Amino acid sequence: xxKLLNLFETKFTLFSLLxxxxxxxxxxxxxxxxxxxxxxxxxxxFDSISSLIQQFVYLTSLFFLIARGKTSVRVALRDPxxxxxxxxxxLSFLWSDFPDISLRKGITTLQTTYFGLYVASRFTIKQQLxxxxxxxxxxxxxxxxxxxxxxxxAIEAGANAGSWxxxxxxxxxxxxxxxxxxxxxxxxxxxxxxxxKLLWGGFGICVLMVILxxxxxxLLLLFTIxxxxxFYKLLRAKDTIxxxxxxxxxxxxxxxxxxxxxxxxxxxxxxxRDATLSGRTxxxxxxxxxxxxxxxxxxxxxxxxxxxGGAMIIWKIEGYKPPHAHNGFINMALDLGxxxxxxxxxxxxxxxxxxxxxxxxxxxxxxxxxxxxxxxFFMYNHSENTIIxxxxxxxxxxxxxxxxxxxxKLVKRQITAPELLNSQPPINSG
Length: 430
Prior knowledge:
Blueprint: H1 2-20, H2 46-67, H3 69-76, H4 84-91, H5 99-122, H6 125-149, H7 151-154, H8 171-191, H9 197-213, H10 216-237, H11 242-262, H12 264-271, H13 280-293, H14 312-318, H15 328-361, H16 369-380, H17 393-404, H18 417-421
Helix pairs in contact: 1-6, 2-5, 3-5, 4-5, 4-15, 5-17, 6-8, 6-9, 8-9, 8-10, 8-16, 10-11, 10-15, 10-16, 13-14, 13-15, 15-16, 16-17
């Protein structure tokens, strides 16, 4: 019975993670390949199926959490702070311009969060990485052949003509999944040096897909991750301020390069005589003005970018309807105000520090996963909105990573992660 239950839970989690990638919506069939075409949304029959899958995923994971009540509560309390954001999203209907939508999507965000709790309470970090390898490997291979089979819908037109988007609505959605897949396969391959051919193959297909999307942000972030690998390893070996300082410079430098690369036409315009600017800088400028109007609590979760919402003036200036601010931090402030942004940055900083402690306690390559994921999550939000989304694998994984790291204090004696599972003094765990 236990073997059958374990098999079911593993398959269920694999399927659920695949669902949270958004691939199963086949959205590119029903979305214009030109992001600025401003075409009316087309009815997607797969959304009805996705809704049923969503209910199955969240009800099943809730059932397992309740069935293992004590374990679930203990794991949930490893990082109480991570629960503040989904609760705030749910409560934001109280001041939202579209209270019904904010409440409904806030509830789904809370469900996405407790799915992350389920994964953290049921599987080890190594098991999580292995499952992510399967999920993102399937996503990469399927997206490759899907694009070859349906180039008319899977390859973008307009400003991004020739960029692969696969079954997703936009190239950057595929690109960030492929960067995540490259990180996962890189860590898995380094963790199994004796038989890594298939894993290096997974890394290769993810890198190829990143290149085919034409996303400069994705390439720069992937390059940054590879550069950071030896320095993060040194964090384990050397207790010195030099290594964290170098890591900080690399992250800041890469963030600046990413910003300049993504917005170089706008920057050139700003340096010349075009006082009106264009592109994302204009969008961000107007968005910041809108933030100042509702500084503390924002416009309500997922309500700003709706027809009739605060984004109408931005759409008028831009000449098309961007679905978000192309910056996760600005988008967070629009949704949940400066309070929400402060909570998010605090969550990220606290977990980055915890991931360093976790890295120094562990001995395996897979113990690098938390610090790499938090780095990925932080850096991608400079140009995309990857912070807190309902039905999003990215937010769910941040919760999983946060709750998978036990509360520990660094001690002089280095111990391995397996030893940590049997936590004995002098380690304090919670």
